[in-house]
Design brief:
It contains six helices and five strands. With 158 residues, it is α+β, with helices and mostly antiparallel strands. β2 and β3 form a beta hairpin.
Length: 158
C-alpha cells in the first residue's frame, strides 16, 4: 500500500516517512514491516504492513488539507461538555481516530478553554499530545521546521 519515501500518519504517534520495508521474524512468524521514521522525537517504529487499515495509517495531508486545518483552528466556535470527564473522553476519541481535522478541533477547543478558564493536568497533557501530532503533520505537509509549524498552530490563540 505504501512505498519507501511516502509521508504517512500513524494515529496517536504522528507523521513520519517510510524509510524501508523489511521482512523480519518476530515470535517465530515472518512478516513484512514498514520502517517509519518520526522526525519529531527522532524515533523509528516498525509497523506490520498487514495492519495498515486496522491502525488507520494514512497519507499526510496536502496543501488543501493544511488550509482546512488552519480554518478549523481559526474558528472560534466550540461545543464542549462542561463535564470534565465527558469532555476528556470525547477529545481522546477524536485523537484516536487519526483524523487530522478531529485533532485540529481538539487543539482548538482545548486552546480556547485554556485561554478562558485554564486546563486540568490531564487536559494540558492531552493538548500537548494533540498539538505534537498536528505539528508533525504540518512539518511534513509544508516541509517546514517544527518551530514554524508550532507558530502556525498557536497564531489563532495569541
Amino acid at each position: 500500500m505504501f512505498n519507501v519515501g511516502d509521508k504517512i500518519v500513524y494515529p496517536m504517534h504522528g507523521a513520519g516517512i517510510i524509510e524501508a520495508i523489511k521482512e523480519q521474524e518476530v515470535l517465530g512468524e515472518k512478516r513484512k514491516y514498514y520502517v517509519m521514521h518520526l522526525p519529531l522525537g527522532d524515533m523509528k517504529v516498525m509497523i506490520p504492513t498487514g495492519s495498515v487499515e486496522k491502525l488507520r495509517l494514512r497519507e499526510v495531508i496536502d496543501e488543501e488539507g493544511v488550509e482546512k486545518v488552519l480554518s478549523i483552528l481559526r474558528d472560534q466556535k466550540t461545543k464542549m461538555s462542561a463535564n470534565w470527564n465527558r469532555r476528556f473522553r470525547a477529545n481522546m476519541e477524536k485523537i484516536r481516530t487519526g483524523d487530522i481535522y478531529e485533532v485540529a478541533e481538539v487543539v482548538r477547543n482545548l486552546s480556547l478553554r485554556k485561554k478562558e478558564r485554564g486546563l486540568s493536568t490531564g487536559e494540558t497533557k492531552m493538548l500537548d499530545n494533540a498539538r505534537q501530532i498536528l505539528i508533525s503533520e504540518l512539518v511534513l505537509a509544508r516541509d517546514i521546521g517544527e518551530e514554524a509549524a508550532g507558530d502556525i498552530i498557536d497564531e489563532p490563540f495569541s
